[in-house]
From TrEMBL:
Belongs to the glycosyltransferase 2 family. The keyword Mitochondrion does not apply. Residues 3-177 form the Glycosyltransferase 2-like domain. Pathway: Cell wall biogenesis; cell wall polysaccharide biosynthesis. SUPFAM superfamilies: Nucleotide-diphospho-sugar transferases. It comes from the Bacteria. Keywords: Glycosyltransferase, Transferase. This is Glycosyltransferase 2-like domain-containing protein.
Amino acid sequence: MFSVVIANWNGEALLEKCLQSFVNQSFKEFKLYLVDNGSKDSSIDIINGYNDELDIELIKLDKNTGFAYANNVGMLRAFNDDNPYIVTLNNDLELEKNCFRVLKGFIENNKEYDVFQITMINYYNRNVTDATGLSFNKRNFVSQMGYGMSINEIPNMPVDIDGACAGAAVYSKTALKKVQDRNGIFDSRFFAYFEDTDLALRLKNAGFRAALVKAAIVYHMHSATGKKDSPFKEYYLTRNFFLYQKKNNSNMRYYMNIPFYIKAMTDRIIQLLKAKESDCAKARVKGIFDYLRGV
């Protein structure tokens, strides 16, 4: 039923826990596509160690191509199997043992949806959620729903959402094939960050509905691969923000919203400078200029 795509880069500290949680799943109708981004650690050995327990296809890339491109490679390979749904998962998570069984039941009973958010709970503090979906305001600023929220609030969350966080998402292959463009399913230009935001907007604009599956749970080690508040992260969050806005708005709407984009970027740069994170602030500025230069 599920084709599971996981991009990995030097994830030796994460993979054992992640892959063992697949072994422990109560529903076994899935195939794993592990796309390795040129890891230099023991990732390949760890993955190969699960060949007898899991249906794994390992795809080895020569270098770190980023989250978007690596997932595209895995998804395109997965298009060739008979499973109707693709699951994208980060390597820094652990699946609750009934996660796929719950997903299967929800999907079969809710055929009006093509996109599904798996509930992401903080791995280290399991009383707190990490993500329950994506939400857009009228200017397409995105918010990660549920971040830092008590798990007691999950029952009160809406089922209908604007899109899914690709760290733990399910997409029908029908929907993905419909919105795939010349840059891929995920836009490979993004490398990392906001690639799922762009995809969510394309799916939403094409009329595909997204749902939160509250009882399907993964435990997520937030930013375990991409460190929090690093210059790398700040750069791609900035450059890719403008990329997804320009791509998913009309020219008129995009230029009308420019003052709001600039204010958001300025506020963040000031915040980073006050926190004495000058390298992160410089990365934000570089992200703006590289977007304008088309880099």
